[in-house]
Amino acid sequence: MNIYNWQVQDYRKTICKFLSSKEIISYKDWIIDSNHFNRETSETIQAGYSIWAKPVLAFMKKSKTFEKIASKPAQWLIEDIKFKKGINKKPHIRGYLFRHILFNPISWCLGNLKLLGNTKENKQVVAANKR
User: How far apart are CA 131 and CA 78, in angstroms?
Assistant: First the structure.
């Protein structure tokens, strides 16, 4: 495993990185989650995650109660990934439902808004450069 690669890309999964640093999830689970996110999640969902993860992480750092509450869905998502990868034999229903009902749709919607905004900014830059 390339440790440097994980250190460079850890900004993408800030919540799980934080949970791993607090030993709420294992380093191995964080690697599984990061690897899945970087390789098998669309750019749109990654962009959306980057929007909502920052305020959630800030709130987790301020509130131990919220940290405890927010850590559960993160653990569920990792268990769902482990099932998809054949590491776990049993499906994790809460992880599957959380991923497909909340995580992916919300991240996808926010990601599309972010990418749309980037497209408009790019058009403005191109238009300004043509002058």
Answer: 50
